[in-house]
Amino acid sequence: MRMIAVSNHKGGVGKTTTTINLGAGLARLDKKVLLVDLDPQAHLTYSFGIQAHDLEKTVFDLLMGKLDYNDVIIKKDGLSIIPSSLDLSGDYKKKLMSMDRREYLLKERLNSINGYDFVLFDCPPALGIFTLNALTTVKEIFIPLQTEFLALQGMSKLLKWVNIVQKKYNKDLQITGIIATRYNHRKRLNKEILEKVEKYFQDKLFHIRIRENIAIAEAPSFGQTIFEYSPHCNGAVDYLNLSKEVIEKGDKN
Amino acid sequence: MRMIAVSNHKGGVGKTTTTINLGAGLARLDKKVLLVDLDPQAHLTYSFGIQAHDLEKTVFDLLMGKLDYNDVIIKKDGLSIIPSSLDLSGDYKKKLMSMDRREYLLKERLNSINGYDFVLFDCPPALGIFTLNALTTVKEIFIPLQTEFLALQGMSKLLKWVNIVQKKYNKDLQITGIIATRYNHRKRLNKEILEKVEKYFQDKLFHIRIRENIAIAEAPSFGQTIFEYSPHCNGAVDYLNLSKEVIEKGDKN
Ligand SMILES: Nc1ncnc2c1ncn2[C@@H]1O[C@H](COP(=O)(O)OP(=O)(O)OP(=O)(O)O)[C@@H](O)[C@H]1O
Ligand SMILES: Nc1ncnc2c1ncn2[C@@H]1O[C@H](COP(=O)(O)OP(=O)(O)OP(=O)(O)O)[C@@H](O)[C@H]1O
Ligand SMILES: [Mg+2]
Ligand SMILES: [Mg+2]
Questions:
Q1: Residue B90: per-residue pLDDT
Q2: N vs C: which end of chain A shows fewer Cβ within 10 Å?
Q3: C-alpha dihedral over B216, B217, B219, B223, to 10 degrees?
Q4: Is B154 close to A46, i.e. CB distance below 8 A?
Q5: Phi, psi dihedral angles at A42 (to 5 degrees)
Q6: A24-46: string of b/e by CB count within 10 Å (b at 16+)?
Q7: CB of B155 within 8 A of CB of B143?
């Protein structure tokens, strides 16, 4: 079972989009996939058409130990999903911050989980308690990276933080993948920065880049993955090819 | 003198791009403009080709009371700029959090500032101590808004926070402008969400929308504003028209 955190402190770089569509791609390749929405803004949850603000059983109940993971899992489109609740005012965060072993809540609640080939964790754009819970639970991190001006500077901050988490909380943690997202070959900057990323992170950068594709942005407003919304568009092709590369690369290691 | 915070907790929606190019547009209309980089990732600073990590005199020295604002201002391309230093590890933030009246440091340091028509504050993607310092200093907030799925949910969180800041710290604070950024009329979602925003925020939404334009993303990697990099492109046209609308709307009130 591969447990993978999809993480980047930068906003809007494609964490949620990747968690959903990589997850859906892996499911289409017959893998058993669980997606965990760890973001109090609940974008992943809403992107499946699930009304996060109405939910009674969410990842917060799991983290606070009120419910078991089997009680909170929703099955949809061949995927299993642990949804988030919408928490605009930070109440859940406050409760979690006051709990004992707050960095390990997720790890402990998912201790006995089985039956999945992949568990993907959608992290919020912050290096805080939710991301930390993902990073103490997993062995792998995938970083969606938008190849724009100052992207590498952002990476440097992220790498420092991962290093600290590794030393302090989880020695097994590794960055095992970097995914170039929202790639547009016509943008000269995208090309130049991608070349720099290839140089620094050759073994980690996936060959498949996810191209900018309007259908990818539209699918969530219909509660669909890219494969249901527009199965033949570039977005679907790219995410399916990424899923294949993720499986192959994992099989090699 | 109009002091305006450019703020949105969502990442990558065009805060820095707008602070720079709205500021530059206002300067082209003969206004005296000061830009303040309040983001420890120093994107605005780097976007002018200024090496934030090498600077000795930055907004942090101002906030900590070590230097006067006149000591830290840099003049460039007809603009005055208070640069940020690069603070990846959060050291400056820790120091500021431990200071007395930490929410009012900026307000007090800029107390006697004069000679400018516009002071624009580029805020980081977080509702934390830096944004708070901007919001206790200004009377106006401009919100760059990317019209995509779940944009309105993000707005709702931002509005709640502004409300709290208004009651607790600054009764004069008002959201006086919402700017639709990275607009692409071909994206059906952009259109639909823009219509919803128009309904809820009619008086605040600027008529000018900033269209998605490759040149806007390229200009910073040359240390230039859009007006120097590509004076006739859509990006330059939009930001100049936005500057005119900002002036007119302000003259009416
Ligand atoms: N390849 C793509 N082509 C077009 N639009 C995309 C693509 N990838 C992501 N988007 C759009 O970009 C926006 C941001 O993507 P997403 O929400 O996945 O980023 P995120 O990193 O999870 O953001 P946050 O930091 O807010 O959690 C969304 O509107 C999404 O639909
Ligand atoms: N109208 C536009 N057309 C094309 N690219 C744009 C446009 N506006 C912004 N961008 C690009 O989008 C990215 C994010 O923009 P920007 O840095 O201004 O957002 P931000 O809200 O300041 O981000 P952060 O939250 O990280 O501070 C940048 O690479 C920028 O060049
Ligand atoms: Mg997300
Ligand atoms: Mg910015």
A1: 87
A2: C
A3: 130
A4: no
A5: 55, 30
A6: bbbbbeebbbbbbbbbbbbbbbb
A7: yes
Centroid of ligand 1 to alpha carbon of B187 (angstroms): 14
Closest Cα in chain A, distance from residue B25 (Å)? 22
Q: How confident is the model over A15-30, as pLDDT tens digits?
A: 999 999 999 999 999 9
Q: Are strands A33-37 and A74-76 parallel, antiparallel or unpaired?
A: unpaired
- The 10s digit of each residue's pLDDT in A142-201 is 999 999 999 888 999 999 999 999 999 999 999 999 999 999 988 888 888 999 999 999
Nearest CA to ligand 1 atom 23: A12
Q: Alpha-carbon distance B107 to B138, whole Å? A: 8
- B186 CB neighbours in chain A (<8 A) are 214
Instruction: Report H helices in chain B.
Output: 15-28, 43-47, 59-63, 69-72, 91-97, 105-109, 129-137, 151-168, 188-200, 214-218, 226-229, 234-252
- Please give the Cα distance from A119 to A95 (Å, whole number): 25
Residue B228: CA count within 13 A, CB half-sphere: 18
Chain A contact set for B150 (CB, 8 A)? 41, 43, 46, 220
Strands B33-37 and B118-122: parallel
CA distance A213 to A132: 31
Distance separating the N- and C-terminal Cα atoms of chain B: 13
